[in-house]
């Protein structure tokens, strides 16, 4: 799995990130979602590297083998702004001052924050299976609260960690056949680690706290994504069912916008890697 990629730990001061990177050419940063690690891209990243891209695949702070700072009362240590800052610093460390970024699930919010906070560095944004947090909350109704109940349960103190760690395998029900054996083993080890579980839950707590406020401040100030933006969503997941046309939701955030559905369940990089590779290569001009 990613055997041709360099696998290293990079000390960024506040955190140390595990990162796998390989290939040569224009840079693309791939950001995983919950509860995955960078290994979720193991069927996509090598193909992008072979197509002539420098591909960077980190574990976000607190996820997988990356460290996380202690929780703060406002959960800002796990904010998308903090995670985006990590990844911008990581790309500088690896020699990539300008790059495209693709983020899936929770990584989608980090990718958006990178494009807003580091506008001069992000050449292209790919948002996969997500809409901005503030947009989801503004549309929250009984259907959304029922489908995304975990957003609100994870916001409670202590209980989510206790519930998950009582039986992580039952909680996450990771599908080894779908994920691949090595990816499955890596993610399973992560979700059995209490420090990782705490950081992942803090990610959600930050979403309902500082993250939505950062997005609302952007909207009030008229800040939008300057780079070309591609939105991909899984046709067998519930994003379009809950929110309607995802492109309509994203349109106020990005003027240069395109996108389409992928025939897949939620974890599209694992379930439909060929379609994801095709979409990313077309968007990135490779």
Uncertain runs are: none
- Strand count, sense and closure of the main sheet? 8 strands, mixed
- How many domains? The number is 1
- Give the helix tally: 15
By CATH, the superfamily comes out as Alpha/Beta hydrolase fold, catalytic domain
CATH architecture, by name, is: 3-Layer(aba) Sandwich
Short overview:
This protein is of the alpha/beta class and about 290 residues long.
Structure characterization notes:
The structure is a single chain. The longest helix has 28 residues, at 194-221. The protein has helices spanning 45-50, 80-93, 106-117, 133-138, 142-147, 149-153, 159-166, 168-172, 176-179, 181-191, 194-221, 239-243, 246-250, 268-271, 273-284; strands spanning 6-11, 16-22, 27-31, 54-58, 99-104, 122-128, 229-234, 257-262. It has 286 residues and is an alpha/beta fold. Strands 1-2-4-3-5-6-7-8 form an eight-stranded mixed sheet. Strand 3, helix 1 and strand 4 form a beta-alpha-beta unit. 46% of the residues lie in helices and 17% in strands. It is built from 15 helices and eight strands.
């Amino acid at each position: 799995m990613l055997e041709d990629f360099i696998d290293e730990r990079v000390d960024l001061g506040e955190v140390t990130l595990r990162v796998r990177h390989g290939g040569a050419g224009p840079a693309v940063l791939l950001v995983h979602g919950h509860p995955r690690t960078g290994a979720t891209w193991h069927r996509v990243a090598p193909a992008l590297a072979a197509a002539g891209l420098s591909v960077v695949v980190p574990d976000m702070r607190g996820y997988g083998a990356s460290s996380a700072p202690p929780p703060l009362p406002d959960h800002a240590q796990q904010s998308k702004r903090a995670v985006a800052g990590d990844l911008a610093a990581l790309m500088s460390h690896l020699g990539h001052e300008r790059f495209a970024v693709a983020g899936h699930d929770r990584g989608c919010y980090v990718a958006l924050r990178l494009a807003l906070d580091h506008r001069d560095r992000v050449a292209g944004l790919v948002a996969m299976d997500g809409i901005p947090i503030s947009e989801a909350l503004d549309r929250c109704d009984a259907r959304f609260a029922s489908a995304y109940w975990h957003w609100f349960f994870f916001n409670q103190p202590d209980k989510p960690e206790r519930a998950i760690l009582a039986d992580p395998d039952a909680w996450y029900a990771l599908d080894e056949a779908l994920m691949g054996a090595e990816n499955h083993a890596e993610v399973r080890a992560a979700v059995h680690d209490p420090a990782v579980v705490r950081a992942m839950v803090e990610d959600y707590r930050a979403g309902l706290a500082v993250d939505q406020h950062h997005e609302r401040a952007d909207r009030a100030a008229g800040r939008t994504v300057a780079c070309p933006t591609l939105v991909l969503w899984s046709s067998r997941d519930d994003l379009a069912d809950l929110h309607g046309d995802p492109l309509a939701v994203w349109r106020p955030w990005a003027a240069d916008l395109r996108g389409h559905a992928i025939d897949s369940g939620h974890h599209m990089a694992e379930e439909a890697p060929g379609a994801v590779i095709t979409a990313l290569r077309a968007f990135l001009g490779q």
